[in-house]
Amino acid sequence: MKKEDKDIIIANIGDTLSQYACVYLTQTAGLDAAKTSDLRRECFKGDIKMLCVKNTLLKKAFEASETDYSGLYDLLHGETTLLLSNTGNAPAKLIKKFRGKNDTLPMLKGAFVEETVYVGEDQLEILSNIKSKNELIADVIALLQSPAKNVVSALQSGATKLHGILETLSNKEN
């Protein structure tokens, strides 16, 4: 491959990386064609981009990026498949779902999520439990609304009780 072609590929990988906040490095070697196609379909449904890349070209794209991916350099050996997403836990959940109960592939090499590097297969459970930004915002809003709802509920129940007492007293006088 000519150097010019490599430079174009590195630039394309870099452009793609810049569009996503989360980068997962996985190993899919060992999946047959049918399972690989199924994985691609699941990625498409989950708004996850799947790329198979050469490690040397990926490392050069990482180095050219403004984001510090240096924690992932040691993982660039063997076959590497990228799963890219803007939701931190989506690829981890996809991997767990795709594996089912018996399969061990795709295997997680590492991930770069929310400016943190996660290395190793044992991090999959942690990554799948990370809440997305939208989920965290929803939790905070629910927590903030809870006291206000309690006050409104107390005021409404108090008004109902007061109305009941006044009605009972008015009926007794008759």
Order of helices and strands: HEHEHEHEEHH
Which regions contain 5 or more consecutive residues with pLDDT less than 50?
none
CATH class membership of the largest domain: Alpha Beta
Per CATH, the architecture of the largest domain is: 2-Layer Sandwich
How much helix is in the residues? 55-70%
Number of domains: 2
Shape from CA axes? elongated
The number of strands is: 5
CATH topology of the largest domain: Alpha-Beta Plaits
As a whole number of angstroms, the C-alpha radius of gyration is: 26 Å
Q: Tell me the strand order in the biggest sheet.
A: 2-3-1-4-5
Biggest beta sheet attributes: 5 strands, antiparallel
Q: Which percent band covers the strand fraction?
A: 15-25%
How many helices in DSSP terms? Answer: 6
Oligomer: single chain
Q: Give the class from helix and strand content and strand pairing.
A: alpha+beta
**Average residue pLDDT:** 89
- What's the name of the CATH homologous superfamily of the largest domain? Ribosomal protein L10, N-terminal RNA-binding domain
Q: Whole-Å distance between the termini? A: 101 Å
Question: What does this molecule look like?
Answer:
The chain has 174 residues and is of the alpha+beta class. The chain has 2 domains: 3-130, 2-Layer Sandwich (Alpha-Beta Plaits), CATH 3.30.70; 131-174. 55% of the residues lie in helices and 16% in strands. It has 6 helices and 5 strands; from the N terminus they run αβαβαβαββαα. The chain has helices at residues 3-18, 33-45, 55-64, 90-99, 124-129, 133-173, and strands at residues 22-27, 49-53, 80-85, 107-113, 116-119. Strands 2-3-1-4-5 form a 5-stranded antiparallel sheet. Strand 4 (107-113) and strand 5 (116-119) form a beta hairpin. Helix 1 crosses helix 3. The longest helix has 41 residues, at 133-173. It is elongated and about 100 Å long. The model has no long low-confidence stretch (mean pLDDT 89).
